Amino acid sequence: MTAVLRAEGLGKRYGKHWALTDCTLDIPTGHVVGLVGPNGAGKTTLLNLACGQLPPTAGGITVLGGRPGGSPAQLAKVGYVAQDTPTYAGLSVAEHLKLGARLNPGWDDALARHRIERLGLRPSSRAGKLSGGQRAQLALTLGLAKRPELLILDEPVAALDPLARREFLQGLMEAAVEQQLSVVLSSHLVSDLERVCDYLIVLVDSKVQVAGELEKLLATHHRLTGPRRDPARLPADQHVISASHTDRQSTLLVRTQAPIHDPAWTVGQISLEDLVLAYMSKPADTHRRPTLEVQR
User: Fold this and answer.
1) Is residue 190 domain-shared with residue 224, that is, in the same domain?
2) pLDDT at residue 284, rounded to an integer
3) Main-chain dihedrals φ then ψ at residue 85, nearest 5 degrees
4) How far is Cα of residue 203 from the mean position of the Cα atoms in its chain?
5) Which of 290, 294, 286 is nearest to 217 (CA)?
6) Whole-number pLDDT of residue 285
7) How many domains does the chain have?
8) Does residue 224 contact residue 256 with C-beta atoms inside 8 Å?
9) d(CA 158, CA 164)
10) Same domain, yes or no, for 243 and 126?
């Protein structure tokens, strides 16, 4: 099966500053992927490289088996909604749809008009007069009506209120199912990722800290609480992601495929937020470093 996105040693430099370095990634098709990481991790740069807006400085990237932006056919495969959900303030909703039809050979006008009608957007309304949630929905409509195979969204709901976020994400999920889309969604809002994503990537300092199907990641990560212990004394298959200690107690987040039988530990489940924060945080001072393996 063709990967929806594959990067190998990918890097992007602006002058002397590297915005992305040595990024290696392999995302399978058919998922709604949550891309998360701290500011400056390289998420937006990676997404701009993936949609062909930037050329790489180092390494390589392919999207749906081709070079991003390498041909009109390749461009038609990818829809993109940028961080500020861009629309043209002086154009009406109807004029946005006309522009989309002229720029995209695979444009689905019926889909676009049906979404606009269902959202209650008046075709004559100018984008500059719409609310933030309405502009985001208009931008999503333009991306979906292009009929892409991959839809990339960079923090599309960051500035929206909770109700507008929920409506946007609900529309995204409905479209992903109806159109059988692969989606890559960058967000700082873990609750949003938990609501819509089935695949997770944590990117820190351009490096993939963990990647895999969300259900499997949560099933193979555990919180261990028990008497204070040196993490280096754990079995070799228990990879320590984070550790904290008091005088008497240790709390570890570990990754393992095997059952944990040590009766000294109380084993607890973790949330998606626990998982993300553990990989985003600086590793604790343990003898065993966190694993950086990418789950294929």
Assistant:
1) no
2) 37
3) 35, 65
4) 9
5) 294
6) 38
7) 2
8) no
9) 10
10) no
Q: Are residues 121 and 236 in the same domain?
A: no
Same domain, residue pair 123 and 240: no
Per the structure block, which two tokens stand in for 240?
Answer: 């320590």
Token pair in block for residue 129: 């007069």
Half-sphere exposure of 190 (CA within 13 A, CB side): 13
182 Cβ contact partners less than 8 Å away, ≥ 6 residues apart: 4, 27, 29, 30, 31, 32, 33, 149, 150, 151
Q: Which residues of the chain have pLDDT under 70?
A: 1, 282-296
DSSP per-residue letters across 236-285? TT-EEEEEEE-SSEEEEEEE-SS----TTPEEE---HHHHHHHHHSPPPS
Same domain for 132 and 226:
no
- Domain boundary among the residues 212, 243, 264 is at 212
On whether both 91 and 208 belong to a single domain, the answer is yes
Flag whether 4 is in a domain: no
CB 221 within 8 A of CB 253: yes
